[in-house]
Amino acid sequence: MSAQTGIALVLALASTTLTNIAYLRQHDAAAALPALSLRRPLHSARALLTDRSWLFGFALESGGFALYVVALALAPLALVQSVTAGGIGILAFASARMSRRRLGRHELAGVLISMLGLLALAVSLAGGGSGEGDGGTIRGILVWLGATVGVALLSLALGRRFGALAVAEGLAGGLFFSIGDISVKVATQGGTRYALTIGVIVGYTLGTAFLQLGYQKGAALTVAGLATLVTNALPIAAGTLVLGEPVPAGVFGALRVLAFAAVTVGAVLLARPDRTPAEGDVVDPSAAPAVAEH
């Protein structure tokens, strides 16, 4: 591993630490605000931007983002995301400490399985596949981003249909954040690809918006945990499938497949709240009229 790659990994770790602490601060602040709505964007933005606690969380998130951009400029997308994906563990630990509670069974299982998958992913990187790819084609990149938008809209529709808006908005937030992450990597390649800065702005703006809406309906670990898993799993896949970053062969390749399977199972478990929340948990009130407006 080169010194440049080592620096990128340290920056990625610092980035995910700041970002996940920021998620918890934003969750607590947004949950205490009047109902936010995409139908009233200016009113909702004003409510967030005038709340000091939320602004502090946003400042932490912005600092994490700046470190993330530098890391992406120094190392492949899949490698950087494999480190930032470990944020789910940081999020779980910080969530339990800040709320002074124990994790529920599904939460704990989801976190442990996800961490197992991320460990498998990290080991798979030792087998190669940590170099830059050919960058892919603009057409392939746009198709991937468009499909991601479609999945986000579908998750929101299903969330409304089945009364699971907190889960749906967490997923949608993560999907839009993944658009921002992939767009950042493409934009750092320079030339005409700077145009993907539009994807950065749209992805992070909508990702942030849906995350705040989800925070008002569900627990931080469920909403931000799902967002974190999706935000990292999709760019890792895109690095291989769209940007042409190399994949290890043999056992290491099998470990990467195991990693994706574990992350998926972990996301499913995090999306299933325990029937009897532990003391101090935030119960998902997604069916409540006061926060159902969109």
How many helices does DSSP assign? 11
Could you give the order of the helices and strands?
HHHHHHHHHHH
Q: Would you count the extended β strands for me?
A: 0
Helix content class: over 70%
Shape: globular
What percent strand?
Answer: under 5%
In angstroms, what separates the terminal alpha carbons? 48 Å
Stretches with pLDDT under 50, minimum 5 residues: 276-294
Subunit arrangement of the protein = single chain
The secondary structure category is mainly alpha
User: Main sheet?
Assistant: none
- Mean pLDDT across all residues, rounded? 80
Radius of gyration: 18 Å
Task: Compute the number of structural domains.
Answer: 1
Describe this structure in words.
This protein has eleven helices and no strands. With 294 residues, it is mostly helical. It has one domain. Helix 1 runs parallel beside helix 5, helix 1 packs antiparallel against helix 10 and helix 10 packs antiparallel against helix 11. The C terminus is likely disordered.
Can you give me a brief rundown of this structure?
It contains 11 helices and no strands.
